[in-house]
Structure formats: structure tokens, C-alpha cells
Amino acid sequence: MPTSATAVAPSTGSVQKKDQDWRAILSPEQFRVLREKGTENRGKGEYTKLFDDGIYSCAGCATPLYKSTTKFDSGCGWPSFFDAIPGAIKQTPEAGGRRMEITCAACDGHLGHVVKGEGFPTATDERHCVNSVSLKFSEISSQ
After folding, report:
1. Which residues contribute to the annotated binding site for Zn(2+)?
2. Which CATH superfamily is domain 19-139 in?
3. 95-126, pLDDT tens digit by residue?
4. Catalytic amino acids?
5. CA-based angle 141:49:56, to the nearest 5?
6. Domain residue ranges in the chain
């Protein structure tokens, strides 16, 4: 079933579950990354080299997060995007201020980090470095 590219993110924090409920629906690796703020191994993610047309949603709650049109190859070893679907993610500064943690606005699942000012030739000069295991890809079928 095609996914709408104009999907609107639900209100902040609207998906809340207990750890036992998250464990029931997530793989152990998804739980470690999304709920415990882990990081998957560099270059091993399912979506690192995928550049098909579609939508990347939160693996925890299915909130649409990124359009494939904002994905680029940064060479960092994780899927990279230069912008998110408006309202879909939250950015929280980390100690030192060099990067921001990004989480799903709906379920607070850890996605990865945003680094700014690296000089990539994108519209925002931002790199949203996202764990593949935090994402679920849905292809947009062309008719």
C-alpha cells in the first residue's frame, strides 16, 4: 500500500508505552537503539545505501519522519538526511553543543543525531545521521 508523502506527524509525545510493551513489538536491537539510545554498527544498517523513492517512518510507532528526497550519501556509514518532515522529530542539544540528539516527536524513540555546518551541498547544511534500525521504509509506487 503506498504511503502518503504528505503525512502529518502526530502531536508530541502522543505514543506512550511501558518498556514491557515496547519489548513486545520491537526487536532486541530496535529496543536498544530506540528506547535505550544505542547506536547500531557503522555501515551495517539496512537503509544506509537505499535510495529508492519513499518515506522513512519510525520503527517504533510508524510516524513518518523523512522523505527519500532529503536522503543523501554523506559517507558516514548511517542513513543521512538533510531535513525531516515538519513536526516529526525533536532535537535536543547534547553536552558540548556540537550535535543534537534527534528523537521521534510522537514516541520519543532515539533516532540518532544532527550535525550542522559540515559543508555538505544540501539545502540545510545539516546531516541527520539516523540508525537504520530506528526506521521503517515504505516505497512510494509510481502509477
Report:
1. 58, 61, 104, 107
2. Peptide methionine sulfoxide reductase. (2.170.150.20)
3. 777 789 999 999 999 999 999 889 999 999 99
4. 129
5. 45
6. 19-139
